[in-house]
Design brief:
2 copies of one chain form a homodimer. By secondary structure, chain A is an all-beta fold. The first copy, chain A, has no helices and 9 strands. In chain A, a hairpin with a 2-residue loop joins strand 7 and strand 8. Strand 1 of chain A pairs antiparallel with strand 1 of chain B, so a sheet runs across the interface.
Chain lengths: 154, 154
């Protein structure tokens, strides 16, 4: 039965390396590196043929207490409604997993240079996946507070 | 230092419930439910305002041995080149995390009905994230074998 409490154990495949710990990670024009541990080198073969990949990472600075926050004001803005964390991309969530689509600019052996990764220096990386046509939302609808170019008014 | 071996521990937030264990999960027209454990009910508030969400799940049937497979023929097709697992969406990967963008059709309390989730019955779910404009790849390029409508020839 799926209701039994389970523990799932993962190990990082690498980590994020930024030029400085003080970069604004929300600046989408910034580049950074992902260092993949050398034992996974074979698993990278061919990834340089993709222009975009998803990076799945572990938000290692989120505390145990923050994992028990279930409602937030999106982006910390008090004028936005209090909503469930699964309705946001907040780092505070039961499993603090980060997901970002990045541009893959180059690969040198086990080092990937990417643009648009909003993860801090030394963030552990869990997985990499190439973008696919199934990742495209057709007729995407979102609440007003979500904003963004893709939003269609209801 | 980020190079020290770390273990990351997660707990499922819920699981996938399909009408039958024998459904073809690759059939994108099929609907299924995601049962979120009731203790996370608050975290769902507002999610029904989104038409599309990412489901992040744990491929629980992938064996320890399969986690050490680093190269595969995409989709098991021998006529496609042998590439690294990070260049594919293969379930065989060091951390068998699944990522699927689904249509969110309805929410009844802690139960979400979705379309397009290619996860088996009883698959543990780790996280839910609303789709955002940052998840859209502009000028996506991929190798020929990847296929799909979004591909632009190089």
């Amino acid at each position: 039965m799926a209701s039994i409490k389970q523990r799932i154990i993962m190990e990082p495949i690498g980590y994020v390396k930024r030029l400085s710990k003080f970069e604004d990670v929300k600046d989408e024009t910034l580049e950074c590196d992902i260092i993949i541990y050398e034992r996974f080198l074979d698993a990278l073969e061919g990834i340089e043929s993709f222009s975009h990949i998803f990076v799945i990472y572990w938000l290692h600075l989120v505390s145990e207490d923050s994992r028990r926050i279930y409602k937030v004001h999106p982006k910390g803005k008090r004028d936005l409604p209090l909503v469930g964390v699964f309705s946001t991309r907040s780092p505070n969530r039961p499993n603090p997993i980060g997901l970002t689509l990045v541009e893959l600019l180059a690969r040198r052996s086990n080092i990937l240079t990417v643009r648009g990764l909003d993860a801090l220096d030394e963030t552990p990386v869990l997985d990499l996946k190439p973008y696919s046509r199934h990742d495209k939302a057709e007729n995407f609808k979102a609440p007003d507070w979500w904003g963004g170019k893709l939003q269609l008014k209801l």
